[in-house]
Specification:
Rossmann fold, 2 domains, 6-stranded mixed beta sheet, two-stranded antiparallel sheet, AB hydrolase-1 domain-containing protein
């Protein structure tokens, strides 16, 4: 069986894996969409996008973050940094993604970015972060300057990256704390769960379909968030094979439960 993943090796020996739809045939102005997944669920959930990319003049790249399939696991010291909320950890992690982008841009010879007056783009790269994947986008481009990303690399990225897409970003991506009087259910705060049961509870909770009202107060207190899960969840429609391919519990334990 052939390995469906491609892998880039960074200068410090870090390996980052991804799947790639490839460039649309006979196109010199396609846009590359790099998708960065969140916690628990890896990039597999987006694999069907590859089927539609070329008809839209797109090249889709599904990136596997560190500690997920095909990419280098976190070291023990990095896990400690996660526990401590280390800024240096995020600077290093996002710098590695920036290095990945440089390698991809240069090796694949992707078209340069062209922006029109209507803010539409051709060529270049659009980066989409889903859930916890949004944190990496902010770590690269939201800060005034990441000291682990060289000025030369920033200039290169400016020539190619045209848009960022934030898909369902969590509050932690913005640095917002949960209010101390929050009553909405959070799996890792559920004292009735054993530690080994939390990843499954998280997967069901995060893939549920809640009937949130449109809150006039715009606070978490107005959300339909008391239930641990709903009768229908996204993963309930997945086969066991799809769950095995798309859900990575060990990586989730490291990121969420430390």
């Amino acid at each position: 069986m052939t390995n469906p993943f491609k892998t880039y090796s960074l200068p410090e020996g870090i390996k980052l894996s991804f799947t790639d739809s490839g460039a649309p045939p006979n196109s010199d102005d396609y846009t590359t969409v790099l998708i960065i997944h969140g916690s628990a669920f890896n990039a597999y959930q987006f694999h069907k996008l590859h089927l539609y990319a070329h008809t839209l003049n797109l090249r889709t790249v599904l990136f596997h973050r560190r500690d997920h399939i095909g990419s280098t696991p976190y070291t023990a010291s990095e896990v400690q940094e996660i526990e401590q909320g280390s800024q240096k950890f995020w600077e290093r992690l996002s710098a590695q993604v920036a290095q990945f982008l440089k390698i991809f841009i240069e090796q694949e010879n992707i078209p340069k970015l062209k922006m029109t007056s209507s803010s539409s783009m051709s060529g270049g790269v659009a980066i989409m972060g889903w859930s916890a994947g949004c944190q990496i986008i902010f770590s690269i481009f939201g800060a005034a300057h990441n000291p682990m990303i060289s000025s030369e690399l920033y200039l290169l990225l400016q020539e190619y990256i045209g848009k960022f897409l934030l898909y369902d970003p969590p509050h932690v991506a913005f640095g917002y704390p949960v209010p101390p009087d929050n009553k909405n259910y959070v799996p890792w705060e559920d004292s009735s769960l054993k530690p080994e049961d939390i990843p499954v509870a998280f997967s069901e909770w995060v893939s549920s379909y809640y009937n949130h009202p449109l809150p006039s107060s715009a606070t978490v207190h107005d959300l339909d968030g008391i239930s641990k899960k709903t009768s229908k969840t996204s993963i309930s429609a997945w086969s066991e094979e799809e769950k095995a391919k798309g859900i990575e519990m060990e990586a989730m334990k490291t990121e969420v439960l430390t």
